[in-house]
Specification:
The chain has 120 residues and is mostly helical. It has helices at residues 3-34, 43-63, 70-75, 78-114. It has 4 helices and no strands. The protein is elongated and about 65 Å long. The relative contact order is 0.17.
Length: 120
């Protein structure tokens, strides 16, 4: 596999992972925030901030990426490429999981503080 192609495949896989995470979490998170009248104005802000944070985490993983050296290109078979890519995608999943954990903690704190103002 050519180094440029390797970088493009890694960037595409990273982008798809980030988009999938944002697509799965954004609407339920915004709906949860809109369930409380005190947090409704901030629902769009928190959803967009989450998307930006996940995108920046994915970009950081792409920026820290280095393709294998030319000797490894010749020695690697197809399944070794799959394992190599999976190992390089591990920080992307870890970053996404940590951002998701941070937002869950943030929303839990917001709801516990503003819980008494919850609409009936």
């Amino acid at each position: 596999m050519h180094p440029i192609l390797t970088i493009m495949v890694f960037a595409a896989a990273t982008g798809l992972i980030a988009l999938a995470l944002v697509w799965v979490v954004r609407k339920p998170m915004a709906d949860l925030l809109r369930s409380n009248a005190w947090m409704t104005p901030g629902a769009t802000f928190y959803a967009r901030t989450f998307a930006v944070a996940v995108a920046l985490g994915a970009l950081a993983a792409v920026a820290g990426f280095s393709p294998p050296c030319p000797e490894q290109y010749a020695a690697m078979g197809r399944i070794e490429w799959v394992w190599w890519l999976a190992q390089r995608l591990e920080p992307v999943f870890m970053t996404g999981a940590l951002f998701l954990l941070g937002y869950v903690l943030l929303l839990t704190i917001l709801f516990s503080v503003l819980g008494r103002y919850r609409d009936q």
